[in-house]
Design brief:
By secondary structure, this protein is of the alpha+beta class. It has helices spanning 16-24, 43-54, 104-118, 123-135, 138-142, 160-171, 247-255, 262-267, 314-331, 347-356, 360-368, and strands at 7-13, 32-38, 58-64, 67-69, 80-86, 90-97, 147-153, 177-180, 193-195, 198-199, 203-210, 212-219, 223-235, 238-242, 245-246, 270-273, 281-284, 286-289, 295-297, 306-311, 338-346, 373-378, 381-384, 390-393, 397-406. Pfam families: FIST, FIST_C.
Length: 409
C-alpha cells in the first residue's frame, strides 16, 4: 500500500476554531501546524483553540501585521490563518530562544540547539536520500535539503541580524533559513510568537527534517536608480553620516524632499548591493529621522556600504514576485506537484502592493494553480539571496515551497 506523500490543509477565519476546522478537513494527524494571527485577537485563546484540534502536532507562528491564505476568496482582517501539514516523510523540531532584545546572539544559539535536540531521527528520509543518491543525477542531488530552518523572531526586539548570527554559529550557513518577524498590526507595542506555547521577546526556530522536495526563494519589488551615497558613519541600525555629512541633510537631497516622513521612507527605500556573485540589491528601509541629524533604519547599515535610492513600478513588482516564486520552486528541485507555499511578506511591501493593485495569491495561482498558501505581513524578513548571503531584509518576500513529491521521485 502506497503512503500518501503529503496532506495540507488551509483555513482562515475571524474565529480560530473555525479556521483550524477548515484546515483539518484535509489532514487528520498534522506533523506541523502553522498559525498566523491578528494581534487584535487574544494570542492565548488563539493558541488554545488550535491546540485542542491538532493533538501532538508541533505549532509555530505568531502575531502579524496582516495574515492571508488561499482558504478565503477575499482579504480578511483581524483573523487567524492556519496551515496543517501532514507527511510520513517529515519530522519537526522546535526551539525557543529567550530574551531576544537583550541577548540576541545567545537567543539564536539557544533556539537552534533546542530545535535540533528535539528533532527525532528520520529513518524514512535517510532511506530515501540513499535511494536518491543511487538513482538521481548530480544536479538533482545538489538540490536536496534534508534540513530546513524556519525562524520567527519577535519583530519589536530589533536584533534579527544578531539572532541570525547566533543560529548560524551553531549550524553553519549551508542549511537553508527562511522566516519573518512577528508583528502587531502597526501598533508597535508587543508581538507574540507561537512555539508549542505562547511567548514574547523570543526567537523561534523550527527545523524540518524532510524527504520532501523543499526550497526557498527571495525577492523584492525594487530596482536601483543612479542616486546614492556612501555610509561614512554608522552604528547598528543608525546612520549618522552619508558622504561625511549629516545623514538627514544628504537624504533630503537624494529624495528631493523638504521633510523626511515615514511615508516618504516607505515609498523610497534604500538598496545595498550584496557581496555575493549575483550582486543583488537587498533593501534597507529607513524608519525615522532623528534630532541629531541621524537616520534609524529597520535593518543594520554598515559603514562603507553604498546606499542606492530604489524605485519600482507595477510591472517590475509583479515580475519580481513571479521570479522569487519560480526561484523557490527551482530551489526545491522543480517538483511537478506543489504541496504548500508559505510566504513571509513585509508590511511595507504589502502597502506598496495595495497602492499598485497587486495580489500575490493571483500571481501564485497563475504560475502553479490551486495550491494551499499561507502567509503574513511581517516586521522584517529573513532568508538568502541567490548567491547565498543570509540576512534580515525589509520590503521583501521570502518564500518556502514544499513539493508534494519525495526527493527520490
Amino acid at each position: 500500500m502506497n503512503r500518501q506523500v503529503l496532506k495540507v490543509g488551509a483555513g482562515q477565519s475571524k474565529d480560530p476554531e473555525e479556521a483550524i476546522k477548515m484546515a483539518m478537513q484535509k489532514t487528520k494527524n498534522p506533523t506541523l501546524t502553522i498559525v498566523f494571527a491578528s494581534s487584535n485577537l487574544n494570542p492565548n485563546e488563539v493558541y488554545d483553540s488550535i491546540k485542542k484540534e491538532v493533538g501532538n502536532s508541533h505549532i509555530i507562528g505568531g502575531t502579524t501585521a496582516g495574515e492571508f491564505s488561499s482558504a478565503v476568496e477575499h482579504p480578511l482582517n483581524d483573523s487567524v490563518a492556519v496551515m496543517t501539514i501532514e507527511s510520513p516523510y517529515l519530522k519537526v523540531g522546535v526551539g525557543i530562544g529567550n530574551d531576544l532584545s537583550q541577548k540576541p546572539f545567545e537567543c539564536g544559539k539557544e533556539a537552534v540547539k533546542q530545535a535540533y535536540t528535539s528533532l527525532k531521527n528520520n529513518p524514512t528520509a535517510s532511506a530515501l536520500i540513499s535511494v536518491a543518491f543511487m538513482n538521481k543525477n548530480s544536479s538533482d542531488i545538489l538540490k536536496m535539503k534534508p534540513f530546513m530552518n524556519i525562524i520567527i523572531p519577535d519583530g519589536l526586539a530589533g536584533h534579527e541580524e544578531e539572532f541570525l548570527r547566533g543560529v548560524i554559529s551553531e549550524i553553519g550557513s549551508s542549511i537553508p533559513i527562511v522566516g519573518g518577524s512577528t508583528g502587531d498590526d502597526l501598533k508597535f507595542e508587543k508581538t507574540y510568537q507561537f512555539a508549542n506555547g505562547v511567548y514574547s521577546n523570543t526567537g523561534i526556530v523550527a527545523t524540518l527534517s524532510s524527504a520532501l522536495k523543499i526550497g526557498v526563494g527571495y525577492g523584492h519589488p525594487y530596482f536601483p536608480t543612479k542616486k546614492g551615497a556612501i555610509i561614512t558613519k554608522s552604528k547598528g541600525r543608525t546612520v549618522y553620516e552619508l558622504d561625511h555629512r549629516p545623514a538627514v541633510d544628504v537624504m533630503k537631497e537624494l529624495l528631493n524632499v523638504d521633510e523626511l516622513t515615514p511615508e516618504i521612507f516607505a515609498q523610497r527605500p534604500m538598496g545595498v548591493k550584496s557581496s555575493d556573485v549575483f550582486g543583488e540589491y537587498t533593501i534597507k528601509s529607513a524608519m525615522c529621522a532623528n534630532n541629531d541629524g541621524s537616520i534609524t533604519f529597520y535593518a543594520e547599515v554598515n559603514e562603507g556600504n553604498y546606499l542606492t535610492v530604489m524605485d519600482t513600478d507595477r510591472e517590475y513588482a509583479i515580475n519580481s514576485f513571479k521570479n522569487a516564486l519560480i526561484n523557490a520552486i527551482n530551489n526545491a528541485g522543480n517538483p511537478k506537484k506543489i504541496g504548500a507555499i508559505i510566504i513571509f511578506n513585509c508590511i511595507l511591501r504589502y502597502l506598496l502592493k495595495e497602492r499598485l493593485n497587486i495580489n500575490d495569491l493571483d500571481i501564485i495561482k497563475e504560475i502553479v494553480g490551486d495550491v494551499p498558501v499561507i502567509g503574513f505581513n511581517t516586521y522584517g524578513e529573513q532568508g538568502a539571496t541567490l548567491g547565498g548571503s543570509i540576512g534580515h531584509y525589509n520590503q521583501t518576500s521570502t518564500i518556502l515551497v514544499i513539493g508534494n513529491e519525495t526527493i527520490s521521485q
